[in-house]
Amino acid sequence: MSAGKFKRKLGVKRATYELMKSVLEAREGAKKRSGRPPALCLDDQLVLTLSFWREYRTQFHLAQDWEVDESTLRRTVERVENNLIKSGKFSLPGRKALREDHDLEVVIVDVAETPVERPQKSSDATTQVRKSAIAIKVRSS
Predict the structure, then answer these.
(1) Residue 5 burial by Cβ neighbours in a 10 Å radius (0-12, 13-18, 19+)
(2) Which of 31, 82, 125, 128 is found 20 to 30 A from 118 (Cα to Cα)?
C-alpha cells in the first residue's frame, strides 16, 4: 500500500505506525506471565484501535467486522490506548508549548456528543389518578 493510502486508511504515517507497533511489542515482551493468548495479533490490535479512532464506528459494528466479541474489542482498544499513553511517545504538547511554538502542526478535533432530541411526554398520553382518590379507596375498605 502506498504511503498516501496507508495514512488515509489508518490516519497515521507508516513510521508512526511502526513506532506504535514497537511500543506494543516491547510491552508484550516485558510481560512476566503469558496468560491466555489474545484473540488478535498485535498488528490486528493496533489496526483495530486506529480504525476505531479514525472511523468513529460503534464497537458493535467493528466487533462484527473483526469477528470478536464487543467486550474483547473494548478491552483491546483500552489496552492499546493505555500502553501507548504509558510510553510517553504519543502525547500532544501542553498548552504553553502550543502558545509559544508556532511551528507545530497539530489538528485537534472536538467530537463532543450531543444529546438526542426525544419527544416530550404529554399528559394526554397517560391517564393520571389523583392521590386523594387512592387514599379514599384505601380508607373505606
Answers:
(1) exposed
(2) 128
Please state the pTM of the whole predicted model. Answer: 0.61
Nearest alpha-carbon partner for 28 in 77, 73, 83: 83
Structural domain spans, the chain:
3-94
- Fold observed for domain 3-94: Cyclin A; domain 1 (1.10.472)
Residue 20 has pLDDT above 70, yes or no: yes
> DSSP code of 32?
S
Burial annotation 106-128 (CB, 10 A radius, 16+ → b, else e): eeeeeeeeeeeeeeeeeeeeeee
Q: What is the DSSP string of 50-73?
A: HHHHHH---HHHHHHHHTS-HHHH
Running DSSP on this structure, what letter comes out for residue 102? Answer: S
